[in-house]
Amino acid sequence: MKLKRKYVVLGVTGGLLYILIETVWRGYSHWTMFVLGGICFLALGLINEILSWDTPIWQQVTIGACIVTALEFLTGCIVNLWLGWNVWDYSSLPGNVLGQICPQYFLLWLLMSLAGIVLDDWLRYWWWGEERPRYKLF
Hints:
By secondary structure, the protein is mainly α. It has one domain. It has helices spanning 2-26, 31-50, 57-82, 103-128. The chain is globular. The chain starts with a helix and ends in a 10-residue tail after the last helix.
């Protein structure tokens, strides 16, 4: 039950942060972005649960950005293409894939993944007394 509560708290934290960042970035958000943000934050947090602390942070960030991009593509295919809710559309950006992902946002996900990984690690340390975060650059 404690484990479930921890993941619910982390998921809600990630969802709220995603909506806040998106609202600041483009002026509005959508409830599906709360769900996507929570799942992305949980996925970023699991990187250090699966890989060792010796994994260089740049590798963790790259893995995180790939995960976020894949989740964004899957979510976009469901909410935008299948359900037609038009939550976002990157079709005007070069290099986009079906208007759901693009290289420009992948670069943003690199930065967001770094922030998400570090925040998750410190929240786990502060709130649940898990191992103190430490990072290896290379």
